[in-house]
Amino acid sequence: MVRALQDPSEVIDLIQDKLPALFFVFGRAKCEELAIELSRQWDFLYADEKEKVQQIIASAEADHPDMFVHRDRAILKKLLLQGIGYHHAGLSPALKRIVERLYESRLIWVLFCTETFAAGVNFPAASAVFESCRKWDGREFRSLLNREFFQMAGRAGRRGFDEQGYVYIQISEDHPEETGFFKESGVEMVHGRLTVSANTVLSLLMWKTDEEIEHFLKSNFSAFQKRRRLKDVTDKIMKINNTIREMSAYYCEERDSTSCPLLHKKLKREMHRLKSRKYRQRPGSQTRIKEIQRLLKSLAKKKCQQDRCFEATAVIREMNSKLDMLQLKKKQLGIEARQYTVDFQKMRRLLERLGYIKGRELLPRGKFALHLHIQEIFVTELVFSGLIDEMPADVVAGVLAGVDYVPGRREYVQVPPYDFDAVNQLRAELMEMGVPQEYMVWSPVPGYLAHAWYNGKDFDHLLENSSLQEGDLVSIIRRTIDLLRQLEKAAEGNLSLQEKIRGIRRTLDRDQVAVLF
Amino acid sequence: MSDKKVINMGDRRRKQGKGRLLKHKGYPQLKRRPVRKAAAPIAPTGPIQLDDFQVEAIEAVLAGRNVLVAAPTGTGKTMIAEKLAEKVMGEGMGLIYTSPLKALSNQKFSDFKEMFGDKRVGLVTGDITINGDAPLTVMTTEIFRNKCFEDLEDLHNIAYVVFDEIHYLDDPHRGTAWEESILFAPPHINILGLSATVPNVKEVATWIAEVRNTDVLVVEERERAVPLEINWVSPDNYILNESQAKRRVKKLIEKRKEEIQQLRTRGRKKYYR
Questions:
Q1: A&B contacts, CB < 8 Å
Q2: Helices then strands (H, E): number in chain A?
Q3: Which of A154, A221, A517 lies at the smallest CB-CB distance from B72?
Q4: B interface test, pick of A5, A6, A14 with most B CB neighbours within 10 Å
Q5: pTM of the model as a whole
Q6: What would the pLDDT profile of A317-330 be if each residue is shown by its tens digit?
Q7: Which of A125, A312, A391, B55 is a plausible cystine mate for A247, CB 3.0–4.6 Å?
């Protein structure tokens, strides 16, 4: 079911004395739609302010003449003249900068933005509104963490100016269960998230001693936390053992001996049962009855501290079951604390099998991959299989753009005008050699864009041939440039390859995707 | 019920006599204007007086200690790094400022350039290098991590590394670079970590202290510079406090269940007819 958008006009009406407001929205399209919706009813700027906005826009347009031309950005210009803006990763860097500048100049009164606007940069507001508390985290829809919520909500309240920051969470009529209730005391702990990549293993082998590697594997934050918990568990186990020992002191001397009054009772109970109709006829019953009778006669009757003994038994029984659980946990934590050593060995074996290392020595492939920080194995194989050498430069740009790229849902890009079977062939071969999928993440989807950009096509052409937004295109090309830089460094000693790579990088780094300060 | 005002939109409009609908040149339709003074208010640009936690942290870094500062957003953590940068650069040493996101690096680069001048500030990310030899370089955590492995000689003049938003350690994609940096940053480099408030900052500090074999001072500020008031907005545009919102949500969920139930039964009848 498509979720109906709540008109922001009425919420803004409620909080109109608490502007500027950051309106957090999880979804770019929704960001834009809500801004447009608000602009139908509201205008926040006076004539002189509109003039200022006009000026700022004009001076920005002098540098980037077509910044408001792409897609529906003409609407954004209109919105900005009404003191309304939107800001998300789909915008071109130039547009993002102008929105930020206008916001800082207090010329935007309501800004619809995604989470990125709250990351670190200092853009306080009088209030923060949450359109919803549910976001897509790349894998699934989930509710915001307390930490994430307060990172954003904390933008409300300008230091030295507002006495209070106001935060508003919208309750949706269609999905009321998604309403967030957050507590600052419930902010989540930070956990270690280290992963052992091919580069990690190669770097360790290349630069670090065995001792340092050991230190790394055993002292990283996750292992540290596991060790701390392990210590907690061990302490608990010790405490419980102590309690058990203490409680056992309440047993009287006769316990477990034939003269224990409790045993007396127990035997009587057993006899009673055996005499019942159900058990009477069973073989052996009669003999046992006789035996018990004999025992009972021989037992000395004694007064005892029954209650304390009973209590102790109950406590000890409980403690023992706790102890079992803790022992299990201890075992588990012990395994987890060693996880990094296991991961390291696994990766090391894979690299050895693929011919990247021999013992501690880095072979040519290993030395090459040492300079790569993304999909190291796959990219190295692209080079060592000769594909990068053979393919024309524009195809190389296209293929590299797809490294580590996972296309979004409903994402469309023109099919690349070159044959990329060889790349898929290589991946299939690697898979047969036992390289796991996650070490060769690649997609042909962004290929067309980098290919066309290399061949001098303009930005409009890229926009026309894909469903992606300006910001996405810039980020795809910049990621490719990043990878090309890594390759250039890795290819040291191979002049022709280095030359080729550098050429591609320089060709890509131009016009709208070039970073300007 | 609390004493929080529950204002209906209609009421409010009457009370404040708003909805001054003004006509604009070029905009034929009438639009609402907010109630406000003629000019946009100018918020003060920076805190005039430093908070206790800032003073404590600044003193500690100026004394050359490893410090982990945890404070809510907007309380002025960057100020501490700025004071440190002034001192370090004044002594002819270098400082590295790392941020977990590239977008942040760019922003910080611009900020620092304004503060210390173009020549004294550099930026290094995977795809850009500007003025890489400057005494103050802004870089992504990944780049710093790489230097800790490969380009150790680049770091010999660095007195401090600042880890901004250090709680990003918890990020499944970025956490690794951050941890490897802390484990392998050369021992002569001191650390200033800036973090949002997380319940186990002390644990993070203990870990850093342990792996780097040094003292780490934790400076914590739990109070927000500006306190937050959280409210909820109902579908019919009332402002609700927490308990009201919870009641409302409960009702709405029940209503929603009924609706779905009705839709189902209706659907079935239709089907059988």
A1: 262
A2: 23, 9
A3: A154
A4: A14
A5: 0.84
A6: 888 888 889 999 99
A7: A312
